[in-house]
C-alpha cells in the first residue's frame, strides 16, 4: 500500500515547528554512531537512508526503513509540533522516539502483531525490550550530542513517557508495565546523578506490583545483573508508583514528584 506522506510544511503538521522537528531527525540519522550501540548497529540498520519523512504508516508501524529514507509515523511529530514544549526539547524527544523505534526492529518487535502477541504472553518481556531500546536511544543521542549529560538524556526520556500515558483503555497488566517503565527511568536518572551508575553501566529496571510490599531496582545490561536497591513499600507509596504512568496535566511536576518518591525509597534504611 502506498503511504500517505505528509510534505514538510503541511498545515496538518503545524507549519514551522514540524519542519524543524523532522529536520532534526534527519540530522540525527546522518550522525548515527559507526558500529553497534549497545548491540544495535543503527547506521547499518538504516542502510543508505539519509532522509526522514513523517508518514501515516499502516499496520500500526511506528517507523519504517526504505531504500533511501526512514519513515516515522506522524503521531509523534504532530503531538510534539502542537505541544507547548520548547522547540529544542521537542526536537530531542522526536529523535529519541525515532531511535527507540529503530532499535525495536532488530529486537523483533517492529511489527505490532509481534508486540501484541508478546503482551498477551508476558507484559514484563515488553517492558524489558522497551528499557533496552530506551538505552540504545539514549546512548545514540549522547553520541550525536556529546555535550548533553547522560542523566539529562534519561531525564528527557522520562518526560517523553508522559506523552504516552496509561489510560482507562489499558488492561491492568499494561498499566503496570507502563508504570514500571516510568519508575525505572526515573530511578535511572536519580542513580546516575548520584554517581552510582556511569554511562557504561547499563540501565535500571524497577520491579514492583500492585500487591507487592517492596520495590527492587536492578542494574541490567552491564554483565551480570545486579541488585541496586530494595525498599519496603507502604500502601500510599505503592499507589503512587502504580500511578506513575497515568496522564498528568503537568508532566514536569508529575515527574519531579515521582523522582522524590523514588529518592525517598532509595534513601530509606533497609527494613
Protein architecture, described:
The protein is α+β, with helices and mostly antiparallel strands and 271 residues long. Strand 5 and strand 6 form a beta hairpin. The radius of gyration is 18 Å and the shape is globular.
- Helices and strands, in order, run as EHHEEEHHHHHHEEEHH
Strand content: 5-15%
Number of helices: 10
Number of strands: 7
Strands of the biggest beta sheet: in what spatial order? 1-2-4-3
Morphology call? globular
Helicity range:
40-55%
| SS-based class | alpha+beta
Main sheet overview: 4 strands, mixed
Oligomer: single chain
- Give me the Rg, rounded: 18 Å
Straight-line distance between termini? 59 Å
Please name the defining characteristics of this protein:
alpha+beta; 4-stranded mixed β-sheet; globular; disordered N terminus
In brief, what are we looking at here?
The chain is α+β, with helices and mostly antiparallel strands. The protein has ten helices and seven strands. Strand 3 and strand 4 form a beta hairpin.
Q: Which SSEs are present, and which pair or pack?
A:
Layout: E1 4-5, H1 17-30, H2 42-45, E2 51-56, E3 63-65, E4 69-73, H3 74-82, H4 87-107, H5 112-121, H6 123-144, H7 150-161, H8 172-193, E5 203-207, E6 214-220, E7 226-232, H9 235-242, H10 251-267
Amino acid at each position: 500500500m502506498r503511504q500517505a506522506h505528509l510534505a514538510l510544511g503541511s498545515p496538518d503538521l503545524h507549519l514551522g515547528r514540524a519542519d524543524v522537528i523532522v529536520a532534526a531527525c534527519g540530522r540525527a540519522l546522518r550522525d548515527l554512531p559507526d558500529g553497534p550501540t549497545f548491540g544495535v548497529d543503527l547506521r547499518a540498520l538504516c542502510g543508505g537512508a539519509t532522509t526522514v519523512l513523517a508518514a501515516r504508516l499502516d499496520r500500526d508501524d511506528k517507523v519504517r526503513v526504505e531504500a533511501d529514507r526512514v519513515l516515522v509515523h506522524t503521531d509523534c511529530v504532530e503531538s510534539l509540533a502542537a505541544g507547548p514544549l520548547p522547540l529544542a526539547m521537542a526536537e530531542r524527544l522526536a529523535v529519541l522516539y525515532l531511535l527507540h523505534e529503530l532499535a525495536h526492529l532488530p529486537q523483533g518487535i517492529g511489527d505490532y502483531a509481534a508486540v501484541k502477541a508478546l503482551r498477551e504472553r508476558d507484559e514484563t518481556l515488553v517492558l524489558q525490550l522497551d528499557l533496552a531500546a530506551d538505552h540504545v536511544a539514549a546512548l545514540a543521542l549522547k553520541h550525536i550530542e556529546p555535550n548533553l549529560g547522560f542523566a539529562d538524556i534519561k531525564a528527557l526520556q522520562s518526560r517523553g513517557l508522559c506523552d504516552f500515558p496509561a489510560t482507562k483503555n489499558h488492561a491492568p497488566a499494561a498499566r503496570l508495565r507502563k508504570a514500571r517503565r516510568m519508575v525505572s527511568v526515573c530511578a535511572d536518572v536519580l542513580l546516575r546523578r548520584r554517581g552510582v551508575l556511569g554511562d557504561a553501566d547499563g540501565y535500571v529496571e524497577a520491579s514492583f506490583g500492585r500487591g507487592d510490599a517492596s520495590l527492587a531496582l536492578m542494574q541490567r545490561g552491564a554483565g551480570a545483573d545486579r541488585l541496586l536497591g530494595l525498599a519496603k513499600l507502604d500502601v500510599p507509596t505503592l499507589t503512587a508508583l502504580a500511578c506513575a504512568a497515568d496522564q498528568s496535566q503537568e508532566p514536569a511536576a508529575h515527574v519531579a514528584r515521582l523522582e522524590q518518591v523514588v529518592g525517598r525509597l532509595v534513601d530509606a534504611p533497609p527494613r
